[in-house]
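Page header: ASSEMBLY MODEL / two components / 696 residues total.
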Amino acid sequence: MELILALAIGILVGSGVWLLLRPRSYQVIIGLCLLAYGVNLFIFAMGRLYVGAAPIMPKGGFVDPTAYADPVPQALVLTAIVISFATTALFLVLMIASRGATGTDHVDGRERHP
Amino acid sequence: MMNDAAMPDHLMIAPILIPLVAGALMLFYSDRNRQTKLIMGLVAVGLTFLASVELMADVKSATEQGGTVVGLYRLGDWPVPIGIVLVLDRLSAMMVMLTALLAAPSLIYAAAGWHGKGQHYHSMFQFLLAGVNGSFLTGDLFNLFVFFEVMLAASYGLMLHGSGPERIKAGLHYLAVNLAASLFFLIGVALVYGTTGTLNMADIGRALYWLDDAERLLFHAAATFLGLAFLIKAAAWPLCFWLPPTYGAASPPAAAIMAIMTKVGIYVILRLSLLVLGPDAGPSAGFGASVLMIGGVVTMAFGMIGILGTPELVRKGGYLAIISSGTVLAAIGFAQAGGGSSMLGGALYYMVGSTAAISAFFLIAEPVSRNDEGDDDAPAEDDGFDPLSERWAPMGLGTVEDTTAPASQRTVSWLTMAICFGLVAAMIAGLPPMPGFIGKFAILRGAVQDNLPASGHLPVILWAYAAMLILSGLGALIALMRFGIRRFWAEEGPTPRILALEVVPVVMLLGMIGLQTVRSDALLGYTSATADALLEPRVYRSAVLAEAQDVRAAPVQSLSPDPLPEPEAEAEPENGPEEGAQ
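Prediction written out in full:
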């Protein structure tokens, strides 16, 4: 599981960075999305990997916390997903506006080779 | 604030809540009611200012009673290391007050017409303030991320306010850079949580003590990621290329309030590097200090070259912000490396003055370069377009145009702007009566006083810093005076119309800078006490975590707060204190 997760994060972040450095704004937004996925998985992994453990503890009494998944990274991931979703949506709007205003989807608003 | 265990000091959350509520309330009104929104915004800013005055008085009186006392506000009354806390100390009180002071002029300036050039200007402005104040007040790393994003989301809107191809282009870059920076921030937060098991800033500093070498390495990686995110925000040298085009493209009132945003990055670096990686952090002490020192000096050099090189006045403002950032960042690096507190005190004093000056500069830059050569991209706000101009014309600030041959085309507003420009330039360059001079002098004096007797000579990097401190001022002076002479003296012909609502905020900011000169002893005393407090992170830590021990004893299973389950660390269980594996 560790290997698969590590590979998944690595591939997502790697492709995200590559796309982020591309000149087309559509590639940039896909790159940012992939990066965000990779980072979200990474946050999740920082709570350590558990299989079949519930994150919510029963009420009353004390329990053995090692039997439960860490709820904090899950809360963090949830927040991070919401925020990155919202900013990505904003980026999309801006990208379309930029396409309309400049007539090209190059991130600099003009082609290098006209 | 010794007695707030019984009754929490609800005032502490006011600087966040007031703008948030005001901004939300404004959304109920149609965007046609801009005057209503403006008044609501001004009231909210005024209330925030009053709250910040009260908070600062609290902090000051608590300090005078003995020791550095840090105010705590537990959100939802959750126990300290588990829940999110707001922490008030001297630094955050000062920054909150500075934000409120910068907000009012920017709002008034926007009333001159800019707030009508797009939608929801006032709401976004208030949300920005809420985000900035929240970042200053929070004591939790992830909560800091959330407030950071609130601030950034609002700033995207403000930056794009007024639209136009130039803004959209710069906005696209700004957004991409900041999204990437936010992801760095998240990676850093996750690593911090993974290694220390806590997100409370004070608790991180304590948990750091028990890390073994492998985890410490990971923690340093986390600190690097976080530092990268904040240095992007603070516009340190290799990460600052986004700033001049963005601030140059933003509308002037938006740029003026965004001047505080680079200081948010600086604030977080200052807070974390001294609290977590300060001199008492064991093997991690001073981690990243050399990066801050060298990076700060190079940033100053870059800003100086940039300001000399760019012809556009607004972009010069961006480079001024970069110089100011570099100055403070380097001072933080020196303080973290043990260079003494008086230098940091001077740098904080300088930061207050230079932020106000940069804010004023952005407000001056647009009217002054109006009807410039590049007329096409400057938004033309010409005769009769602005309904407010008629209202303010009786003040004598309209242009003189009905005489056949006036002796001089210069108007009062133009002259006022010219004088303000000169004063701001003097402030930024650090000429004697202005706080820029006092701040730089205090930095230099602190550098020599604290470091010379210890070793008998100054380190090379300190020499470089001192040289750049003076050179960057000289560069700014040359660049601004060259512009000023060309624009205000040499240029003949009619002067652009400048509205009273555009002059008043600049004069307000200059009044603030003047006050800072007159009361420099008080402010310098405050900032040096702040620097002293920052260099004693133990006080902050114990103040934040004092109640942590109380509440941790409350559950049936009492968990001693200090020893982490170190023997299990190799097996990497969840070893966070809040999970409390026993």
